[in-house]
Design goal:
Layout lengths: L1 H14 L6 H7 L1 H17 L3 H15 L2 E2 L4 E2 L4 E2 L6 E2 L4 E2 L4 E2 L4 E3 L11 E2 L4 E2 L4 E3 L3 E2 L4 E2 L4 E2 L7 E4 L4 E5 L1 H10 L15 H29 L5 H5 L6 H8 L1
Parallel strand pairs: 1-4, 2-5, 3-6, 4-7, 5-8, 6-9, 7-10, 8-11, 9-12, 10-13, 12-14
Antiparallel strand pairs: 14-15
């Protein structure tokens, strides 16, 4: 128990540059408080003291704003930053070295018994406000962007963003190399490429439109060189401004 507490304190210093002292972590970090109380609640739950376990969990929720069901399984060196509004369901599994930010929900999508909450494998980072719903697996080293809504499995090393979430990166080897260089930490689930796929698609369409306009202009010039009057076609110009539209969708 004491070794686990020391590990939970040490991980705060590894992942939060704002931490200044052990006493500050012990007294002022709700994520540390919630995980500590969960160790107690989970121990009671596994020993079939269900009511007492739920009461300890309820006290933790009241004190920290973090609701972790006592039946949830949480690995080692898990870091909860800020934490307010986090909800972790009964059958959720959080692997070693995971990071959760405020407003994260690991929720269920059914009232049936059995596995109904997500599994986060080792090293997963879940950004603020993200919702991961159902008995799905988020692969090791994956990142879930802020406010994403994930209802399908995410491969190891991938990055999921948007609502519904889409995979924008799937390079496990590069992710592992980056994690090794950065101590396995990336704040708020941000990767080097966090553009929404829909925005990327719009940018692609805009680029295609620009190329099409350039071709039409070249055709008009050729026709004019051959003596064809293209004044009416030029008068119907829509004054398309791709730079303006690009700024709107960014």
């Amino acid at each position: 128990m004491l070794a686990r507490l020391r590990e939970n304190i040490r991980v705060v210093f590894d992942r939060d540059p704002a931490a200044r002292s052990v006493w500050e972590v012990v007294c002022c970090y709700p994520g540390f408080h919630a995980l500590t109380l969960h160790i107690v609640a989970n121990g009671l739950w596994r020993r079939d003291f269900k009511l007492l376990a739920r009461f300890v969990s309820h006290v933790g929720r009241f004190l920290t704003g973090i609701e972790i069901h006592p039946g949830a399984t949480i690995g080692q060196r898990v870091f909860i930053d800020h934490g307010m509004g986090i909800v972790v369901g009964e059958t959720a599994v959080i692997g070693d070295d995971c990071t959760l930010y405020h407003g994260v929900t690991l929720g269920g999508t059914t009232w049936n018994q059995g596995k109904r909450h997500p599994t986060l494998e080792a090293g997963v980072i879940v950004g603020a406000g993200a919702k991961i719903l159902g008995p799905i697996t988020i692969g090791a080293g994956a990142k879930v962007g802020s406010n994403a809504v994930v209802v399908k499995p995410v491969p190891a090393g991938a990055t999921a963003v948007g609502n519904p979430a889409r995979i924008i990166q799937n390079d496990s080897e590069n992710a592992r190399m980056q994690k090794a260089q950065q101590l396995g930490f990336s704040a708020y689930g941000i990767s080097g490429d966090m553009n929404d796929p829909v925005v990327k698609a719009i940018h692609g369409l805009l680029d295609h439109s620009v190329n099409t306009d350039a071709k039409v202009e070249a055709i008009l010039k050729k026709l004019e060189q051959l003596g064809v009057d293209c004044s009416q076609e030029r008068a119907r110009s829509d004054h398309f401004d791709p730079d303006y539209l690009n700024k709107i969708v960014e």
